[in-house]
């Protein structure tokens, strides 16, 4: 068969479809569409709760997730073959295949791509670039030499780091490239440069003949150093960075030495931020929907970063109120809103750089007047904005809540709030 030139790939983020397009996603065996692409399919494209396979509105479900560490490769092949047959039978539809199985289910792009090989022949199916690259033998290359160079350098070598850990007291500045974390947890140059991009790079790191051996060796030394406190050995914040590192590599290699560190020094607790960035759930989190980071962009858009960058849309006065409460984690009593009128006006003017009209200024007066119902009405609009995009169990984390007459606040952990400006 003559190989067809592949003209396009499925976009990384899809929030709308043309009438003839179908969003193809990986479902769990129960049809519970709670996270990642399946949640997007449920919220936006007609996926039906409890239906694990097939066409549903403008979405098509392929079952891939059977629970932690449970893999049913023959079943997945059957389901993907059914999808390909369905796509062939419906040439009037165009199918956008997402990275099926590469989120919560835990498969790599290479593992899943092989099931979709026949889809390359179909003109009405697009695949993710990572699938196409894997099928063509163009898997991503990771620059692991950056770690080797740093570990062999004169300013904080692996030999020095190992000696310090064995002594039970870290002194040097080598944490980023000796105990690497998932990328995105820090904002410094080192945390970004030495950040691990995802499961595939972490797996390549462990398989590297030098880096993998060194990581296990220094981890073993950490366990045997005789100091019962990780904080005393590492100090702050490096004690948290090592927890993140151990979480990352325990997920990649669950029967390895890394779980022992988590059990001994961290009471078995994994780094929740690392777990969330990997889209992974262990048994303790199996039936939980994890909250997303909330990003306030430079142009003041409100985005759920971990839910495929879904934007939470609000009209300017409602958004200004939301940002005001977001800036005050301690909360604000409605009766005290007159004291925040100047701050609210400044936020509103930032949203409306062309200037505030008399109507806008009157809206600020009304919403900060505790004798009027305007603030309650605006809080209802905030709630309505989050209902379509946030799981019901997490809704109260994102909206303004509080008992009547008491302080009202947004209870979302400020560790999850990112201000780009």
Give me a quick take on this structure.
This protein is α/β, with parallel strands linked by helices and 421 residues long. The protein has 19 helices and nine strands.
Task: Describe how the helices and strands are arranged.
Elements: E1 21-28, H1 36-44, E2 54-56, E3 59-65, H2 73-89, E4 94-97, H3 109-113, E5 125-126, H4 129-135, H5 145-151, H6 158-167, H7 175-178, H8 189-193, H9 199-207, H10 211-224, H11 230-234, H12 238-252, H13 258-265, H14 272-277, E6 294-296, E7 302-304, E8 310-312, H15 316-326, H16 341-351, H17 358-367, H18 374-386, H19 395-398, E9 417-419
Low-confidence stretches: 1-7, 281-288
Query: Biggest sheet: strands side by side, in what order?
Result: 2-3-1-4-5
The chain-level mean pLDDT equals 87
Strand residue content: 5-15%
How helical, in percent, are the residues? 40-55%
Q: How big is the Rg? A: 25 Å
Main sheet properties:
5 strands, mixed
Compressed to H and E, one letter per element, the order equals: EHEEHEHEHHHHHHHHHHHEEEHHHHHE
Outline? flat
Distance between the termini: 53 Å
Q: How many DSSP helices?
A: 19
The tally of strands reads 9
Helix/strand structural class:
alpha/beta
